[in-house]
Amino acid sequence: QVQLVESGGGSVQAGGSLRLSCAASGSTGCMSWFRQAPGKEREGIASIRPSGDSTYYIDSVKGRFTISRDNAKNTLYLQMSSLKPEDTAMYYCAARSAYWSGCSDSSSLYQYWGQGTQVTVSS
User: How high is the pLDDT of residue 22?
Assistant: First the structure.
């Protein structure tokens, strides 16, 4: 069983930046960031394969967010820039078991989840 612990959330003004981190207790496969705003469904926003050579972003964050991972530290990152009020949400780190290198935006395919970290962007 792998445990995920997120950190780095907070409140920021529009146009600002935040960096989220997710520390895993062991090796994992694909890792992703999901977010869920009040009254909305959870959505996958960025994914990265174990090798780090392949990433995926939804259109609304492309060019503003960067996902990366440090496998030596079992840590996932999300650098968020040019933040907008619509980015306000609870952000979750998710991971597939080490057996699965492929990524998906379907939350049901992720075995491990963090507790979430709140990101609030004010206008």
Answer: 98
Strand-strand pairing, 112-113 and 89-95: antiparallel
Burial of 104 (0-12, 13-18, 19+ CB in 10 A): middle
The CA distance from 69 to 32, in Å, is 10
- CA distance linking residue 104 with residue 73, whole number of Å: 23
Residues of the chain with pLDDT > 70: what percent?
Answer: 100
Could you report the per-residue pLDDT of 81-91, keeping only the tens digit for each?
A: 999 999 999 99
Measured distance CA(118)–CA(26) in Å, rounded: 24
Longest dimension (CA), the chain: 42
3-state secondary structure of 86: helix
